[in-house]
Amino acid sequence: MPSALNKALFLFVTLAVSICLVDAVPAYSSMGELSETSGDEVQDVDVKSPLNDQEKWHLMARDLHKDVKTLRDEQFERDFRETVNMTAYEGVRISTPLLRPSDGCLSRNFSTERCLGRIYSVLTWYKENWNYIEKENLTSNLVNDIKHETKRLLEAINSQLQVSEGQMDPISSSPLPVKSAWMQKTTVHSILFNFTSVMTDTCRAVNYMSKKKSGQRRKGVKRPSDRTSEKD
Questions:
Q1: Would you say residue 63 has pLDDT above 80?
Q2: Residue 177: helix, strand or coil by DSSP?
Q3: Does position 19 have pLDDT exceeding 60, yes or no?
Q4: Which of 63, 75, 101, 128 has minimal Cβ neighbours within 10 Å of its Cβ?
Q5: Which of 132, 150, 155, 166 lies closest to 202 in space, CA to CA?
């Protein structure tokens, strides 16, 4: 009997350790670096206590990421239903603004002001080109919600930076290719696919800002690169 109990206890401890190790594995950022959390997660945010600005932004960014991703999947299923894998369209996607490794949003070169400035410029581009999505026969409530959520997040970031839009690094916007029905589909898919990627990285960056801010009120916070190997 004692032997059976010891075996059961050993299995329980082994399983518990395995679960902890799985939970501790950091997630890859779409910018190619290990991050403390994924864009779908909100950690160390107690909604019952007052939130700082970065925690509020993280919640806003998370909701926007979720809605953009849902709309992306809806459009892809409608217009490319014969294909189940979005990677098949990598070669036909057009380029739209993304967060770059040089924008100060990665742990190894993190800069709050530079990162927020780039996020602001990129989100402004998607806001100004959202009319391409509004022309599509997609879920109207979701389209309107994303438009409103993008505006709210831009206003929140701008209030923190305390600069006018004219002082931001603007992103030139040339007409997008919509000369045929096929190009219209791929253009809309490109916008939604890349917007989702932007929001994934925005969630991670703002979450890191939030943790950094909270850590400064205590003893400081370690950067992700302090405990993980970097990947370019």
A1: yes
A2: coil
A3: no
A4: 128
A5: 150
In a 13 Å sphere around the CA of 82, the CA atoms on its Cβ side amount to 1
The mean predicted confidence, pLDDT, of the chain is: 77
36: Cβ–Cβ under 8 A, 6 or more apart, which residues?
A: 26, 43, 204, 207, 208, 211, 224
Spatial distance between the Cα atoms of 176 and 183, rounded to a whole number of angstroms: 9
Question: Which residue reads 């959520």 in tokens?
Answer: 149
* Beta-ladder partners of 35: 27
3-state secondary structure of 35: strand
So what's the pLDDT on residue 136?
A: 93
Read off the DSSP letter of residue 221: -
Region 151-156: mean pLDDT is 95
Amino acid identity for residue 28 in this structure: Y
Q: Which of 43, 58, 74 is nearest to 201 (CA)?
A: 58
pTM of the model: 0.73
Joined together, the tokens standing for residue 50 give 């007052």
pLDDT (average), residues 29-52: 50
- Most distant pair of Cα atoms in the chain: their distance: 77
User: Closest Cα partner for 39 from 29, 52, 25?
Assistant: 29
The yes-or-no verdict on residue 66 having pLDDT over 60 is yes
- Residue 38 confidence (pLDDT) above 70: no
Class of residue 130 by CB neighbours under 10 A (exposed 0-12, middle 13-18, buried 19+): middle
Strand-pairing partners, residue 34, are: 28
